[in-house]
From TrEMBL:
The lineage of its organism: Bacteria, Pseudomonadati, Pseudomonadota, Betaproteobacteria, Burkholderiales. This is Fe-S cluster assembly protein SufT. InterPro entries: Fe-S_Maturation_MIP18 (IPR052339), FeS_assembly_SufT_put (IPR017776), FSCA_dom_sf (IPR034904), MIP18-like (IPR002744). SUPFAM superfamilies: Fe-S cluster assembly (FSCA) domain-like. It comes from the Bacteria. NCBIfam families: FeS_long_SufT (TIGR03406). Residues 86-160 form the MIP18 family-like domain. Pfam families: FeS_assembly_P.
């Protein structure tokens, strides 16, 4: 999905969302008005009655949209192809308040690969941070990373650690991220 101007939508069925930045679940009711503020990666950020919320892409039909398509994954993936595929996948994960993926934001501190006993399978260990230690969306972002990476071929296990050392700052952002945010 791409960045686009805000769009008004009507909630077509009751649906659970997460408030931003606390991450608390709430239910949107059929008939509520919302505005899409960000449609990137595999989720939607909505503004509903002055509150930002995150709607999972799997619930896109609740606002009259189609579920975002995952990245194209080749049928046969060699062990050497797993690392670039994981990084490409991580670039489909977004902080719901910032229109830049978590890789370009500099939120990924470590991405290691370890062989598992099951032949050809790997354990992926990722350390990620948040733009602010008190951000309630950390668990949601970590869960999205887990779900997406674990769905890749040859990935048998994943561990995602949310860390705060060193503290994140703007210097960790890629040039692309700085340009996208006008910094």
């Amino acid at each position: 999905m791409n960045r686009r101007p805000r769009e008004d939508v009507l909630v077509r069925r009751n649906v659970m969302v997460e408030t931003i930045p606390s991450g608390q679940p709430i239910e949107l009711e059929q008939g509520q008005l919302a505005q899409i503020t960000q449609a990137l990666g595999s989720s939607f950020t909505l503004l509903v009655e002055g509150q930002l919320v995150r709607l999972k892409g799997t619930d896109a039909d609740a606002i009259g949209k189609t579920e975002p398509k995952p990245i194209d994954v080749p049928e046969h993936v060699s062990a050497e192809d797993v690392e670039p595929l994981v990084w490409e996948t991580l670039k489909t994960c977004y902080d719901p308040e910032i229109p830049v993926n978590i890789v370009d934001l500099g939120l990924i501190y470590r991405c290691d690969f370890e062989p598992l006993e099951e032949e050809g399978k790997l354990r992926v260990v990722i350390d990620l941070t948040l733009t602010a230690p008190g951000c309630g969306m950390g668990e949601a972002i970590a869960n999205e990373v887990c779900d997406k990476v674990l769905a890749l071929p040859r990935v048998g296990e994943i561990t995602v650690n949310v860390v705060f050392d060193p503290p994140w700052d703007r210097s960790m952002m890629s040039e692309e991220a700085l340009l996208a945010l006008g910094l």
